[in-house]
Amino acid sequence: MAGAVGRRRLTDRIATLLFSAGGLFAVLLILGMLAFLVWEVVPLFVPASATPSAGPRAIPENIAGCTGSERGDHVLAWTRSGELLRIENTGAVHRGPQLCAAPALIGSMPGSNEVAALAADGAIVLARFSEIAPADAASRAAVVPGWALQRVQLEPMLPAAEVAALSGRLGDDGAAHVAVATNDGRLLLRHSRRVDNMFTGESELQHSTAELRLSAAAQILRITADGKNVVAALANGRIACVVEADAEHPVLREQEAPGVTLGADIPAYASAIAPLFGEQAWVVACSDGAVGVWFLMRNAEGAPHLDFVRSFPALSSAARLIAPAWRDKSFMVADAAGVVSLCHSTSGREVWRGRSGLKDLQTGCLAVKGDGATLLGASGAALLRIDNPHPDISFSAWFLPVRYEGYGDSSLTWQSSSGNDDYEPKLSLLPLLFGTLKGTLFALLLAVPLGVGAAIFSSQFLGPRLRGIVKPVVEMMASLPSVVLGFIAGLWLAPILERVLPGVFLLALALPAGAIIAGTVMRWAAKRGWIPGKPGAALLGQLLAVVGSVAFALWISPSLERAAFGGDARMWLREMLGLTYDQRNALVVALGMGFAVIPIVFSLADEALSNVPRSLVLGSLALGADRWETVRRVVLPAAGPGVFAAIMVGFGRALGETMIVLMATGNTPIMSLSPFNGLRTLSANIATEIPEAPHGGTLYRTLFLSVLLLFVLNLAVNSVADRVRERLRRKHGAL
Q1: Domain count, the chain
Q2: What does the pLDDT average to over 468-490?
Q3: Are residue 520 and residue 600 in the same domain, yes or no?
Q4: Same domain as 381, residue 332
């Protein structure tokens, strides 16, 4: 006997240790998953850093502009005398050819590798620089890339003495676009396009010129690569915007320079202007230190104007330099005091600010990869090593409306990619959170009444024999793969619902009405002995009522559509209620995902209802209460915590569903309460985007942030549900 007791104790200890180890392993596994998610998300919140260092000292003092290199180890600069220089970070300066002999004026475009020079005789030279990689790939690390120069000389437009500002660009198709501002306030636009002669095979340049009158001479002139947009800062403090409808009829508008007044009669003027990557947004810095991003837009009459979008922390003095990034919407602003600010337009934040140590700034540029910057002055150069991997995200970019390029108003948009490299990522998580909650709630609107109602009917009204058949059949529904349910909902159910939309509306009334009518008729017939008063007969009658209600709604749907909706229910929704109907919408998701959640809610609620002590039920019946009063006043309060837990488990199941939502909706990240519009959930978005997200990039880590949000949301819901369940248990524990 003692040996048997010892073996049982040993077995109990081993079992206790195994169960404890299993529970501890599960907890550690969840904590490990959470730690991994946090590890991937934390770099999004690490602030940018920039390390200033002294650059080469022996450089010419008359630098007019520069452009960055791919490797970031040197810059290509040009002087006011038209000489090209390659300035290496090591201090070596290599002299190159002349743009033209003794240029009267140099006009460069910030953030580009193009420059325009005005020769003494009035001829205009447009040049573009392209970096050449080393021919020997094996020695790439030891060979400094070279630069190729593409140069086009155009005939004079005006005498050089009359030109106040100049800007020019070379198109990829051989076109050339030039903007020239004169001392007396004229603005001349010339477009030269190369046209091939189909008969001779020769090509020639065809020119078109337009002239506009400005209110004052232009001090700064910028023209876009396609030649359609021109922005000029005028000597009287105004900004001129030109949008070219065609070569002969450009549209001009002048407006006050953005900024605040310096004094009673001295308005702030634009000290620097530069387009951001894509040339849809413009950074304007004013003489009072204000810095803002403006979009070049058209009003209702087609007139162009600079529309203010957002501002950034002001500099201590007027900006001398705006250097746009080459590959995103970042830009660098620097003033004469040596203060440097790194900003990003979309996120609307200043990611870093510091001092370069250069007091006599002339020009500068960002490296092509954005990991460095070079500032040039009369006393030498200053170098910045920049670590800023995620400049385009912020709390506002994730959860608040943002004004994007080309948009008239702020919006909540998710668009991680585009067919154009110039786009700005739109990574708003709010539409995805909204779609997640919308799809979950719509699914629960179907699953909770049916699941809980079926559990009440099965546990309290069905006999043991029928319950032994119904319960396993309903629970088998949970074994259906989500991809099968999504396939059926998206490809079979969605087109049917579109054809019988009025019948779907009618079902909301037909099903309850059919059930009530069937129950009343069967009860009346059972009292008269026409049908047996058994649960099986009631179940069969209700099934016939459901089938009959559905058949009636589908049969009358075409007639109802002609009579009540003018023959087209979707058109009626759009014209009368302003609602659009998408074939794959939240209604389809509710049916598909609700079908997947019903077995879970039913099974757990049935167990909770069945575990109510039989003595409570019999006591209620003995006191004269009927079966429904017993369920409503005794069984449901006693099983309330378990039923509530079943609903919360169903909520968690719907919250993380992926394949049904992915296949049964248009997967459109929009915020609409209409059941006839599509949606995109966090889980479906992760499944869609993660295969194409570059490892370690902003999109990649934002998707991990989405996973973390799902994790936290589910944890929060379960925690609240547990508190509510515990309160219900204490409240009804006396039963």
Answers
A1: 2
A2: 85
A3: yes
A4: yes
pLDDT of residue 608: 87
Considering only the C-alpha atoms of the chain, give the largest distance between any 2 of them, rounded to a whole number of Å.
119
| Across 698-718, average pLDDT | 89
The more confident residue out of 244 and 20 is: 20
| pLDDT tens digit sequence for 308-340 | 888 899 888 888 889 999 888 999 999 888 889
Stated pTM of the model:
0.85
| Segment 255-279, tens digit of pLDDT | 766 543 333 344 567 888 999 988 8
Which helix (H) or strand (E) covers residue 131, if one does?
strand 124-132
Q: Do 473 and 325 lie in a common domain?
A: no
Q: Give pLDDT, residue 261.
A: 37
Distance CA 200, CA 197 (A): 6
* Residues ≥6 apart with Cβ < 8 Å to 704: 37, 40, 41
Q: Convert the pLDDT of each residue in 608-660 to its tens digit.
A: 888 888 888 788 878 877 788 888 888 888 888 888 888 988 898 888 888 88
Look up the domain containing 115 and give its range: 49-134+142-398
The confidence score (pLDDT) of residue 734 equals 56
Lowest-pLDDT range of 81-90, 266-275, 377-386, 494-503: 266-275
Q: Where are the beta strands (DSSP E) in 319-446?
A: 319-324, 330-335, 339-344, 349-355, 361-366, 372-377, 380-387, 414-415, 426-427
Higher pLDDT, 678 or 72: 678
Chain mean pLDDT for the chain: 82
- Is 333 within the bounds of a domain? yes
Q: DSSP E strands: which ranges in 214-348?
A: 218-223, 229-234, 238-244, 250-256, 270-275, 281-286, 291-298, 304-312, 319-324, 330-335, 339-344
My answer on whether 393 and 441 are in the same domain is no
**Same domain as 381, residue 448:** no
Please state the length of the chain.
735
Is 116 among the domain residues?
yes
Clarify whether residues 371 and 230 are in a common domain. yes
In a domain, residue 474? The reply is: yes
DSSP state letters, 163-189: EEEEEEEE-TTS-EEEEEEETTSEEEE
Please tell me the distance from the alpha carbon of residue 270 to that of residue 216, in angstroms, as a whole number.
Answer: 14
Q: Could you say which of 353, 380, 398 is where a domain stops?
A: 398
Name the residue among 590, 582, 594 with its Cα closest to residue 678. Answer: 582
Residue of 172, 174, 270, 166 lying closest to 222 (CA atoms):
166
Same domain membership, residue 452 and residue 326: no
Query: From the CB of residue 127, how many other CB atoms can be counted at a distance below 10 Å?
Result: 23
Tell me how far apart the alpha carbons of residues 304 and 591 are, in angstroms, rounded to a whole number.
Answer: 49
Task: Note whether 363 and 465 are same-domain residues.
Answer: no
Sign of the alpha-carbon dihedral angle for 57, 63, 65, 69: negative
Task: Tell me, yes or no, whether 351 lies in a domain.
Answer: yes
How confident is the model over 57-75, as a mean pLDDT?
80
Long-range CB contacts (within 8 A, 24+) of 127-135: 127/99, 127/151, 127/152, 127/170, 128/170, 129/67, 129/76, 131/69, 131/70
For residue 100, the Cα-to-chain-centroid distance in whole angstroms is 47
Higher pLDDT, 268 or 434: 434
Residue 432 to residue 429: CA distance in whole angstroms: 5
DSSP strands (E only) in 436-568 = none
Measured CA to CA, the distance from residue 614 to residue 618 in angstroms comes to 6
Asked if residue 36 lies in contact with residue 339, where contact means CB atoms within 8 angstroms, the answer is no
Find tokens 């959860």 and name the residue. 399
Among 377, 398, 419, the domain-final residue is: 398
